[in-house]
Amino acid sequence: MRAKRLYQITRTFLHYGLNELIPAKWMPWSVRLARYGLFWIPNRHKHRPAGERLRLALESLGPVWVKFGQMLSTRRDLLPPDIALELAKLQDKVKPFPGAQAQQLIEKALGLTSVDEAFDDFSVTPLASASIAQVHTARLKHGDDAGADIVIKVIRPDIRAAISADLRLMETLAGVLAKHLPDGRRLKPREVVKEYRKTLLDELDLAREAANAIQLRRNFEDSPLLYIPKVYSDYSRHNVMVMERINGIPVSDVETLTALGVDMKKLAERGVEVFFTQVFRDSFFHADMHPGNIFVSREHPADPQYLGIDFGIVGTLNREDKRYLAENFLAFFNRDYRKVAELHVDSGWVPSHINVEEFESAIRTVCEPIFNKPLAEISFGHVLVNLFNTARRFEMEVQPQLVLLQKTLLYVEGLGRTLYPQLDLWQTAKPFLERWMQEQLGWRAVLRSVKEHAPYWTEKLPEMPTLLYDYLRTQKTHVAQQRQVSTALIESQRAMAWRIWWGVASGATLLTSTLFWVTEQHVAMTAASCLVTVVSIFMSWRTPTATK
């Protein structure tokens, strides 16, 4: 089965001429010979551009490869721009599996005899179908929200086995590329496939997605910026998730949004605010914000609100990453390239042995031509890509959390410019970042820290005298123990010196006795020398008397 799938993949690659994308000098003789051996599989798409051929090949190989292409389209640090743009066109629209089979999966997961026990008006025809799962509509039958419109997301049957098989083949192919491509070290095909494996397997766990949705909903509770549908945890499992059904306009449907009178400028700016709020306030961001997962509420067009779905991929940043990232952005706004270089070294993203002056010069070389354009024409996401590309020349390791951030930022910026082409993302983001930095480093940060830790300090304050007494008593015991250890160490060193001295003496007298014996000296001298040798050996094994 695996050999059959490998042949199918090879045939598809050759059918679309993907082998021609790799220079002949990069391919070992064995690969070139194998290509000649498969002479009956010609390239039937020579007239198409390379990026289009790659996109069509991935589409024909199925959903696992389509999602891989979608992920690659965000890695503009690895691919030429034309290919990355072409891969971004990949549509994850897949033929649905039978609704009756989905119903059986739901009943088995929830322990139901019939789906009608928990839901009314279950639609056997799916509302939408994707590579990993498909969605059916229904209404809740019980509980406080009885009668509420819901969607039931169901993982495709046997999808895990299919994904595992294709992932193993991808890993094999990545190993071959890493070994034979001269640029294999920079492209890191093994690491790319490893990253994709984690992302894809995370998406197979709907219990994880439900938890992500609950967290995001709590973060934006009562917010005018973003609405996250309610998840019904009692009906959610690893392969089934039940959540509130939303009624919004796809964010890519600009014509409908305009006809409804939506404030497009405000909508675009709120998209930027949603992104930076998730990243810098919550350290927990939706990392798959492509247009298919974002809708706009039909209510209050003058005060538009986003609706989000599909929470299988989220990103997180720790406190240090957030701070360094914000400082990097602000340094870029101010064109302080020295600061950018120093921040990369301070954060550990770039090794400390790197020459900061050279790194600063490289960043300036990349960024100064960009800043000659009006700010509204500068792509924030592409600046970040250029920065990471430059840093990678200076041994910057790939930061997984930054790859997700870069991907999300590219989505958000593209979305914002689609909604409102005049969007100046720099000017929209700068006040937010400056305010966040002031809150982190100014008097507000001190006040917030005191407020956060006050309950803990209040709880521990009555214990302070006891803790202080215990500490002083422990210190006294530690001093006595240290004195004992020091004394034992001195005695051990003294014993070792004793044994070494008598060991040397034993060796010397043994050598003397042997010479006396060989040269046939007087028996009394030989006997005396042997006696001294025996005494020396005895003394070397004897423990010296301790001294005070």
UniProtKB/TrEMBL annotation:
A single MF term (Gene Ontology): ATP binding
Known pathway: Cofactor biosynthesis; ubiquinone biosynthesis [regulation]
Keyword check for Oxidoreductase: no
Residues binding ATP: 127-135, 153
GO cellular component terms given for this protein: plasma membrane
Keyword set includes Membrane: yes
Listed EC numbers: 2.7.-.-
EC category: transferase
Ranges of residues in domain ABC1 atypical kinase-like: 89-344
Biological processes annotated in GO: regulation of ubiquinone biosynthetic process; ubiquinone biosynthetic process
Keyword set, alphabetical order: ATP-binding, Cell inner membrane, Cell membrane, Kinase, Membrane, Nucleotide-binding, Transferase, Transmembrane, Transmembrane helix, Ubiquinone, Ubiquinone biosynthesis
Active-site residue numbers: 288
Primary role: Is probably a protein kinase regulator of UbiI activity which is involved in aerobic coenzyme Q (ubiquinone) biosynthesis.
Family in the record: Belongs to the ABC1 family. UbiB subfamily.
Name of this protein: Probable protein kinase UbiB
Source lineage: Bacteria, Pseudomonadati, Pseudomonadota, Gammaproteobacteria, Alteromonadales
